Amino acid sequence: MAFLQTLQSSLLRYNSPVTSNRDEYFSCARDLVLAQFQLADQELTQRLWQDVADRNLDVDRIIHLMYRCRFHDDNEALKEADDAFIAHGRQHISQVSDMTVGVFEHC
Question: Taken in order 72, 74, 61, 30, is the CA torsion positive or negative?
Answer without folding.
Answer: positive
